[in-house]
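In response to the reviewer comment on reproducibility (Comment 2.3), we provide here a single inverse folding case reported in full, input and output, so that an independent group could reproduce the run without further information from us. The structure tokens appear first.
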């Protein structure tokens, strides 16, 4: 059964009930993320208040300080306080990092499967941000978050029954069957719907929900906001970048034709444009992986 239509509240409620019946309650957004996102919506919020909220979670605090002091920001003087880190990073990057840490925190363990899913999420996020910066029309940090969360449904399904989800991925690979069809055979629904339900439950934007639900096929119904459609297209392409490079995959697929990706067809991107973005992703992922893939602490 496909779910190509945008999710209405009534439809999401019905689908949510089905998922809960099989998986149990969906994971809540971590308390620190809820508080930080609430503060960021307040135009009078200060760096001091944000730092205070972040300080209640040691993992988030450590990660934000670590990123603020990374070579990406080229600072000569070390940032030693959360308030200073908030100022250095700015609101958009801070929101991205808080949500990134929220996704990381969902994992109940961090074995080989979890690491592959995490690498895939980070690779897709970076790829979507690269495309957004090159093509415009979509905020790069929004695109990053959309790429980050596109496979959150896989993480939730693996947490529910890791052994079964490993069998799903192995079956899809060895039997040359589509992952979504195999997921439905084992779980009665696919990771797309689970991911959309989680993000909707977290009250994240409809654009992020649609990116989780339609990143494979771009089957968004009209009328649909052009920015949303562009964002989903970029996430789709970024996912293909990961497959081509082997980021979060068992093996790379060097012969994968990127021009056939639904997102590339929709955006009208040619091979040269795609290869340029692919090369940038390969370089940036190698450079930034230590910061994103290091264990939370």
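Designed residues, in position order:
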């Amino acid at each position: 059964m496909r779910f190509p239509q945008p999710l209405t509240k009534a439809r999401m409620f019905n689908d949510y009930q089905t998922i809960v019946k099989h998986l149990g309650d969906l994971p809540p957004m971590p308390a620190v993320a809820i508080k930080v996102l609430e503060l960021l919506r307040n135009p009078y919020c200060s760096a001091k208040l944000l730092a205070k909220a972040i300080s209640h979670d040691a993992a988030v605090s450590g990660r934000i300080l670590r990123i603020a002091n990374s070579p990406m920001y080229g600072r000569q003087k070390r940032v030693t306080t959360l308030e200073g880190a908030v100022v250095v990073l700015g609101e958009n990057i801070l929101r991205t990092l808080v949500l990134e840490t929220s996704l990381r925190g969902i994992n109940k363990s961090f074995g080989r499967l979890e690491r592959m899913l995490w690498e895939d999420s980070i690779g897709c996020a970076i790829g979507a941000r690269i495309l957004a910066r090159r093509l415009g029309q979509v905020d790069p940090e929004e695109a990053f978050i959309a790429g980050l969360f596109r496979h959150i449904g896989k993480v939730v399904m693996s947490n529910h029954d890791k052994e079964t989800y490993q069998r799903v991925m192995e079956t899809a690979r060895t039997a040359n069957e589509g992952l979504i069809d195999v997921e439905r055979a084992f779980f009665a629904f696919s990771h797309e719907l689970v991911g959309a339900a989680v993000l909707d439950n977290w009250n994240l934007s409809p654009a992020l929900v649609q990116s989780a639900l339609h990143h494979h096929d771009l089957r968004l119904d009209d009328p649909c906001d052009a920015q949303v459609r562009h964002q989903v297209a970029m996430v789709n392409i970024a996912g293909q970048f990961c497959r081509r490079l082997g980021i979060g995959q068992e093996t790379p697929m060097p012969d994968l034709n990127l021009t056939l990706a639904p997102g590339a067809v929709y955006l009208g991107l040619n091979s040269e444009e795609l290869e340029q973005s692919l090369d940038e992703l390969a370089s940036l992922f190698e450079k930034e992986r230590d910061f994103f893939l290091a264990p939370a602490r």
